[in-house]
Every structure is written in structure tokens, then in C-alpha cells.
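Page 42, continued from yesterday. The earlier attempt failed because a stray header line got pasted into the input along with the sequence. Redoing it now with the clean sequence only.
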Amino acid sequence: MYANANILSFPLLVPVNCQFREYIGYIQFQNNQYPVEIKLKSNGLVGDSSNIIFDDLDIKTTDEFSQILQPYLLTIKNRAVQCKDLNQFFYELKDVIEKIPVDSRQQQQQQQQQKLPNADSKKQLPIQVYTMILKELEDIGWKRIVKINDSLNEFQLLFSHDKREFIVNFNITDQYPQQSVITNHPLISLYSDSTRNNIISTSNIDDNSTINNMRLHLNDLYKSCKTIRQSMNFIEKLLEYYHDFFKVMDEIDDNSWVLDPEHPSCWISERRLNLGNNTSLYFNVNPDDPFILPRDCRFLGPSTLIEPYKKNLTKNWQEWKPNLSLLDNFRNILSVEFSKKPTLGSIDDQQTMVECGICYSLRDALTNNLPSMTCENIQCKKPFHQDCIYEWFKSLPSVQQTFGVISGPCPYCTTKIIVSFNQK
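This time it went through. C-alpha cells are written below.
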């Protein structure tokens, strides 16, 4: 109620909380806009010289605007103590400001022009932009705002979908609403990457047509994504569109041992799953059609151990059934079982050797990658980071290096290991 009434008095002031006891923003005086914070407090004094303090009211602004209001403090105080709420006080404050003589305004304007510009001050948006922003935020609802800066040009909005919560950053420029207001977010990156790669399923003509129509609709929404409301509508449509993809990724993360990424999330389409015996399966789920066979399926580990998986995939890939879960399909096609990640320090955890045999770390210090090279000796099976084994070979005088390939003995069993330069 306060917020709606406040727009009529000072449209550039916005409430900070749902209780409407604190406002931040700007008050326009003549052709200038002054930053102001107005807060109802229970008691206590604030010692800042730029504060105008009444019994229960704290008004904080610049020294410049304080000097303008200084001759009228007694009038403002007398009116404030008679107000029942901030809504009434805003009307009274506006009335006082509008009655300040024109001469005082012109004098203040001249003083401001004589001052050197502050290089650290933030660029203010045009008043018409502030008015549009406040009107949109009023319509959206203040409960959706997670955070907003003092200049009102950067804020975070909360989105909820299927028990998930997403926080998206918005950035307003002086070109608003001609420029998009959404900043980078993994959800937007997921959409942009799939659009750029033109990832569309061909498993079923009817389904493919539906996906294409949805993509065209999303593309149209994205192109017209200028205002805050339009941007929110686009994000909400994205959440609906990727609903199945999120569920598939959750099912993978909950029922298998994910080696990579280190911190899996629903908008990352790549996974590397542990298959045991220092072998693993890498794949990339199609966000637009997550029920089809993932593209770029690869097996990592000793060739003698992963060769059966490769043969099963080549032989049985046509038996993939979109009505089954992704893990169930892999179980049927590859004849594998997926185990969940063991608790830290358990026997299974200790027996799973995934640390690099050279740097003794799980992840490469520079690339954050897991070991992807493995000794072919079944009795050894030591894993290595590509960079580590490459640098190890370069330090040995007896290694062979020809045609983009370097090879040398395993540091543990002397079995020959080959590393391609393009793997670096």
C-alpha cells in the first residue's frame, strides 16, 4: 500500500523490505536527482552529518541536498511528527520541497555546476528509465527481488520451478528498454550453446517438429527480450522447456558416481561416470531432447577393459528406448552397473584409484581436469593427467617423439604409453 502511494510523491524511491519501513532511491529537485535513504527506526541516533534525524525517522542523503533542506528542517520535523505513516510523510515532504523558493534552487544549481565531477560517482540513469523500472518492479512484486543496488540499475530476481530456485541477475542501462537486461546466467548459456550448435533430435519426426516449434517460439521471445517483464517471461519459458532435461540430469547425479564435473548441476549437460577398475564413461546429454542416446559417448581407461564397452555400444545402440531412463538404457546396452559415490574414507573409496600417478592429485592444478590417460597393463592401471605424463616424458632422454606423438614407459611398470600432441 505504501509503495503504490509513494509513486505519486517520489516515483524514484523503492522499498527495501516487505514491511515498507525503509526506502532507497532518488528525490528529484529541480533538474537534479539526489540519492536518499529513508528508514523508520525504533530508537537511537545516527552520528553522520548528512543525516536528518527525527524521533523515529532517519533520512540519509548527500551533504549537498542536506544544505538545501537545512532552512526547512523545523517545518519538515513538525510535519513528520504529525504523520501516522511513511505514506503521509512522503506527501508532506514533497509539499515542503515544492515550496522551496526558485532563487534557492537556482543558487544551488550554480553551486553544483562549480563543483568538479566525482570520478567515483555512479552514472545515473535518465528519470524516464527509473520511472519505467519502478513501474515494472511494482507490477512484478517486491518479494521477487533478492537484491538491488543503490543505483537501481542492477538487481536479482528469484524464479521458482518444480521445487528449484534460480536467481538471475538483471542489468539496466541508459538504453533501456532498447537493450536486453539479462546478464550471464548458466540457464541462458545452456540455451545459447544449444542454439549455436543447432542441437535438434532426429529420433522421431513428430517429436522433432515439436522441438523445432518450441525453439522457434523461444527464439522469438529472446529477440523481443527487452523489458524486465519480457525477460522474466523468457526465463520462465526456458524453465518449462528444460524441465525434462533437469529431471534427467538429477536422475544421473542421484544414482551414479559422477567423476566430472566436480560440482554437477542441472544446467551442465556433460557427465563422466565411474565404471570401476579405473574406467569411466563420458557423454553429453542433448538438452533439447534428453531421452535420446547422448552424443559424443566415450570410454576412458585401459583399452583392454573399455574395448567390451565400445563393442556393446556399436552393436546395441539401436536398442536405445526413449521411454526408459538414461541410466537404464546404458545398463541394457553396455551391460554395466552404476554404483553411487561411496562415502569418504570407505573401502570402495580407498580402492578406487583415480588420483594421478605423477602429481598424486585428483584434479590437474592448472586445468582442473581428471586423469584421462591410463596404463594399459592390467596389473598396473595407473591413471595420469595428460599434462603430467606429457611433461614426464619430455624430461626423459630416451622417449620417442614423432609426427605429433610422444611415447615412453609407464613410471610404475615400464609399459609403453602414447600421448598425442593434440591431446595437450
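Notes: The radius of gyration is 31 Å.
Reminder to self: strip header lines before submitting.
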